[in-house]
């Protein structure tokens, strides 16, 4: 079925484009669902064919074939990647260790769920094995499904009952995704879960019951062929449109979008598997088929190649580098297919073991290629095992799930409230390593640091204010203030080393202190940092945000005396309603409210609307959009723009536009330098009290 090999090529390159952060394929992650549908169809087709031939299922042989097909290539990849990280990227070893071991036993998806590691929000050292969760889902299916099929075929051998059973199970899985998914929060739980992703596999399995490949004839009438090709074109077009238009935070995706994608993929599989399909012959052309046959190797190699050759985070993207990464992934997959997968699939290990036991395998009978391959693999295994043995496991250094997890700022959660009197500040000590840990993993608990109104804190001068920057801060990508942060009343207060964070958002800027339409911003760039805005007194202002706001807090205290700033590293929009109610009950919610959230992940339009509805009684809400080189940047900024247009008391501060083309960020494109924090504070000050 060459057409299915072509579909594999489409699926694997969709995933590669997603991991390369290609802007025109934000839904590339849907390629995984295509693989699931394909696997469900092919495995069930094989099992039912065996049942028809022999009246039983040889489970032992089935599992041996699966292990022989999948394990060798993955073990080689794990050994090579772990050895490389041991020698060249030792800082990544703590996170890689847990991923490698859990992937080897095909439980990586549940490992990530248990440690609440996000697939989407990744900061700090990223595991090069973060894509292997999908292989765990498939292997768990391969273990359980033959058992269930054997029971089902014995109890209900008729196709109709089996088909209805599979569709019912798929509906239960889709319902589980619908129930567990919480709009506006990180969707990784439903994205990883075997329970919430099984419907794609089961839809493919159900298709094999009513559309078995052994009964498909190349001889069909002209009308049937045209109908077949028409369905194929429509289904493939639907898949491509979804890859082009959706993203991981799309509110449509999890309540039903993935189900629709799986149904479209099933329709495509039905057409491409048919020997009479002209679309199948086109998609199954030699180049696409060659790549499709090696798609497993391309999949397992592409992500390590991308991660280990990317040095400056998401900002380290270029067409030549992307071409090199894709070419390297294909080359490694081709080598794996020729030297590892095919020889072992054809029984190399079994034949060699039999010859060795019978004494017929001599040293002189092993070809040079075999010696080189064996020696290389042995060296990789030794290095990788040494690296794993010497490294303690850490849950993950990528962005953790939930509001309490670390965020784009690269540190553990730290909160700071600047008092209404403007004379206090918390000392929020974040981990110096710059690595984030998921909840459930090892992390330093910095704890919240707040000061209440009228309770002045000791003055804390950032090291950078004295012309110094701690080495570990430099390593983590944070930058201290280049000058003493301004303070209200001479009592400067900010965290001992404020952590800068990125922001992103589109909007046309006006002149300083003005606005363009409903958006307020400043496109003048760094010039704005040298011209502080006039101090605005007698304004009751409250600001809620993440660590970007923490960076700007010292300047805001000077420009807006009496401002209440409630900011926390890693904060999500979902936390804002509770913060608003707390500030209101404490009498700290001002007539002017600044919301600076979105750096650490997307949120739903409904969440934002509910928040703004709760702030109808305030004079003005300033929504600060974001600049962060992550997939959710455009989603966040679009939601903020639409919300500002829809609410009379809301104003959009276009930080995305104001920071465009400026050197306000450290090399990771996320953290703010001192001049960026100062400009952001100036723009917020100008926006407060400004009419639309």
From TrEMBL:
It comes from the Bacteria. Residues 511-526 have a biased composition (Gly residues). Residues 462-475 have a biased composition (Low complexity). Residues 2-335 form the Acyltransferase domain. Keywords: Acyltransferase, Cell membrane, Membrane, Transferase, Transmembrane, Transmembrane helix. It is found in: Cell membrane. The chain crosses the membrane at residues 30-49, 70-87, 140-156, 163-181, 196-214, 226-245, 251-273, 293-310, 322-340, 361-383. Residues 403-534 are annotated as: Disordered. GO terms for molecular function: acyltransferase activity. Pfam families: Acyl_transf_3. It is a multi-pass membrane protein. Belongs to the acyltransferase 3 family. This is Acyltransferase. It comes from Paenibacillus cineris.
